[in-house]
Amino acid sequence: MKRWAKWSLGIAGTLAAIAAADAIAFSPLRARLESVPEPAAAHDVVIRRDRWGVPHVKGRTDADAAFGLAWAQSEDDFATLEQVLAGTRGRLGELTGPKGAAQDYAYHLLGVRADVDRGYEAKLSPQVRKVVEAYADGVNLYAARHPEERHLPGLFPVTGKDIVSGFALTSPFFFGLDHTLGALVGDKPLPNDSNLGTEKGSNAFAVAPSRSADGATRLILNSHQPWSGPVAWYEAHVTSGEGLDMAGGLFPIAPFPLTGHNRDLGWANTVNRPDLVDVYRLTLTDGGKSYRFDGGTRPLGSRRVWLWVRFGPFVLPVPKTVYRAIQGPVIVNKAGAFAIRYGSIGEIAQVEQYYRLTKARNYDEWIAAMRMAAIPATNFVYADRTGRIAFFYNARFPERTSGFDWRGILPGDTSRDLWRRQLPFDAAPQLVDPPSGFLVNANNAPWLATQQGSNLHRTAYSPLLGIEENVTNRALRAVALLSAMPKVGADDLWRVKMDTGFDPRSAERHYIDAALRLDLRGSPDLARAQALLRTWDGTLDGHGAADALAFIVVKYGLRAIYHNEPPPPPREALADAVKRLTELYGRIDPPMTDLVRLRRGSLDLPLTGGPGALRAIYTHYGDDGRLVGDLGDSFIMLVTWDKAGKVRAQSIHQFGSATSHPESRHYADQAPLFARGALKPAWFGEQELAPNIVCTYRPGARRGC
């Protein structure tokens, strides 16, 4: 017994020592104590901050500007940058735990780093390599000089390849590859192709001079993203002596804006969900080491990887095996082995295409950049100083053959369904200068982009493309409102963008109508709620007594609607709303603006709009039972080219430019404007910008503002 006690104590001591060593090895303290070398290259760049804290970065070269942008973004949100960069190395799980480790698994499964290593010099121009390497150096300089903000040992210095890997890893997630991977890993049915996937969406609007009340051309960027994290928008303006002059929104590790405008043209992006993912069932042989193909067998590639996953203070290794077949990466689950082939497989030039778009000075140059087709999905709504507007259902469609059910699981033992090329850019739907004079996209099928008589025809496109057919309330509502306006002024367009209504044809209204048809005799509380809901005017503008109730009912059913799945029974939604409102207010008709809030630091502001509306506000339940905004309308920009072709812009961010610094005056200074549905100036030209600059400094110097 004494011997057993000694053994137990010895084992416990060993485990404690291992745990302590593990905690030290992966400790943020170690990250802060390690030495990170400062980059040797010098860059000629200044950062100018305007009255709203937005950085206007001016470099001698494009690479200089990227270096300065990296420093400015690091100042404002280094914590998120570090997380994104960890993901580009397959190390996100060390920071964020199992959820991050799921992305790390995708990183290894897709072979992202191998693709980048093979194609970095062959597929990327020397100029783009200079830009991404300079951006990496800007982050490295900040990391070297601010060790107290580092959390992950051994991450810095990062490289240009890390920046490119980030683009290559995340771009297929925008068209739903992550949902396919998640279903296969979880032994679940494959998701319905061509669906939105989450409540996230976007709006984009363009109005030509022919429809404009004052002869101007207008463009609204209105992407709906989470309000924090790796895909939250950040506003910046970058210029250089090499012609770069772009203002707009970007995500962490982007070395220039990804959407916005330059002096001559601009574009907005919205997520689309064409069917760009094909799944093949493999027939394994030789104990799972091979698979059948074209009458013979081929070896199944396999590689052991380790995912390092944080659990509280500890980071533990989790072994995984990743497989690969001729079609692409393979997931083996209880149902068998499945190979995955997707529209951007092996592609790493996304950052190259975005760079060329920012540098374009006319429509022909911009279209030449689009024909690269390196950006595998997302719609583009375009406008320029000449008055041209255009919509592009951008997608990297596989060149599929007929005779197979491409929306189902394909046979993996034949080369007849193994596509090897993508169709050219011009094969996708596009609508340039429609007679109607306006264009809209709100994550909907491309057949509804403008008013009747000016739209594309679905019969002109092969079903093998897998173009989505969903129509959102936002698209229905925007097209209906704009179609009713003979001329569209700036205020008219903004009112459409901020509209809180629901079209009678929308899935949301159909869900409400189903709740109104319920037989609720015997349930007096629900019957009273139904009677109140019957008075709802179809908007979430905060003025109606039924708005709070309608908001919760729509929210309850929307996730299923966005997944193209049957929504939960409307009785459940009504009961949930009654329970929540009664517990919180003792009534079911409180003001919606008391229920739906924007919270940031000490600010607690009322919001209108809601899930599925053009004024898109998505929420979670706060600790006090109220609905707190966390996704939807975020960075919005209204760009105008007047009759003479001169550009000016206005914008708004849901919080402010200092996205992770509560002590900064720019942490939440835009939130009151955002809550009211107002815009701030987005100064662009030197003449308007100069009087609104409050400080100028170089990377490495104290900001002082």
Give structural notes.
With 705 residues, the protein is α+β, with helices and mostly antiparallel strands. The chain has a domain of 112 residues: Aminohydrolase, alpha-helical knob region (Penicillin amidase (Acylase) alpha subunit, N-terminal domain, Orthogonal Bundle), CATH 1.10.1400. 32% of the residues lie in helices and 23% in strands. The chain is built from 20 helices and 28 strands. A 10-stranded mixed sheet has the order 20-18-17-8-7-6-5-2-1-28, with helices on one face. Strands 3, 4, 21, 22, 23, 24, 25, 26 and 27 form a 9-stranded mixed sheet that branches. Strands 13-14-15-16-9-19 form a 6-stranded mixed sheet. A hairpin with a 4-residue loop joins strand 10 and strand 11. Helix 3 packs across helix 7. The N terminus is likely disordered.
Primary descriptors:
705 residues, Penicillin amidase (Acylase) alpha subunit, N-terminal domain, 10-stranded mixed sheet, 9-stranded mixed sheet, globular, disordered N terminus
Mean pLDDT: 94
What would you say the CATH architecture of one domain is? Answer: Orthogonal Bundle
Which sequence of strands runs across the widest sheet?
20-18-17-8-7-6-5-2-1-28
Helicity range of the residues? Answer: 25-40%
CATH class of one domain: Mainly Alpha
Poorly predicted sequence stretches spanning 5 or more consecutive residues: 1-21
| CATH homology-level superfamily of one domain | Aminohydrolase, alpha-helical knob region
Strand content: 15-25%
Question: Count the strands?
Answer: 28
Categorize the overall geometry.
globular
What is the structural class? alpha+beta
Separation, N- and C-terminal Cα atoms = 69 Å
- CATH topology name of one domain, in short, is Penicillin amidase (Acylase) alpha subunit, N-terminal domain
Biggest sheet layout: 10 strands, mixed
Rg for CA atoms: 26 Å
- Count every helix, treating DSSP H or I runs of 4 or more residues as helices: 20
